[in-house]
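Teaching note: in complex prediction, the entire set of molecules is handled at once rather than each chain in isolation. The prompt given to students was simply: 'Predict the structure of this complex.' The entities are:
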Amino acid sequence: MKPGDKIKVFAPATVANVACGFDVLGFAIDAPGDELILEITKEQGVVIEDIQGDGGVLPRDPKKNSCSVAIQDYLDYTSASFGCKIWLNKLMPCGSGLGSSAASAVAGVYAINLLSGNKLSKQEMLPFLLNAEKAACGSAIADNVAASLYGGFILVRSYEPLDILQISVPDDLWCAVIHPEIVILTKDAREILPKEITLKDSLRQSANLGGLMIGLLRSDYDLIGRSLVDYIAEPHRSKLIPGFLEIKDAAIRAGALGGSISGSGPSVFALCKGENIAVRVGDAMKEVMDKRNIVSQVYVSKVNSQGPRVLDLDRSNA
Ligand code: HSE
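The expected output is the structure of the full assembly:
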């Protein structure tokens, strides 16, 4: 690795919570996501050269941006004698419930780790990503970062110590996500949640979480659908999303197995059996937003099994 070495990477967006797994479940999707160019410099520290696609809302201060915070942690941990410059291209909306800050942080540590000769494992990089989430949204939650970093469907079995489990998913499981163009900050969406839940809700939530895991492992699509119920966050957060119940109804009527809020919202996801149904479900959800004159984007994707990937690598001759 030399100054001037440059890499371009992509890190995927994610759907966190997945209805019954508040703060502990997440999966990556093929699109949207973040692109990042990272170049090694002789000078230490992280310099943000440019951020595109965020409408100017993300912090340009490297101490506050989730991508640079994660990279700096990596450089400190590995006692690096060099630094880097970064160019971030947000190909996804911020404050959307699609793990935008997580995708930026994952792109950053994935890129610096590759140029550093893959010094650290994914498990070792996770703490930097959690710090970055804390900087971006006030809470060190692993669901989005772990899903984007590992790819696939993940369960955060434990936070202390961190124990991330990857869950296999049925071949024909597709997801339709609608992003209505309103912004909900994760910090705000967490503040409206009650600090405690009833024993009854806790039992119902954990029963559905178990049901979803078994449904995924057995490719039992009906069980997956029956298990996509959220007793913790959806009852409170759905009030922040105009037309939420209509969107969900439209998705089910168009053939979705079930769905809920993606992460802290406002995006709404629906899991479906097969691409054709997922496309139909995406259209049905969009129709609801169109009728309410709310601009929205729909993403239809399989669960992304790869996680971040290299788009271009340029080793310097310096
Ligand atoms: N699980 C988080 C939440 C999403 O719903 O607040 C952000 O990681």
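Point out the following to students. DSSP finds ten helices and eleven strands in the chain. The longest helix spans residues 199-218.
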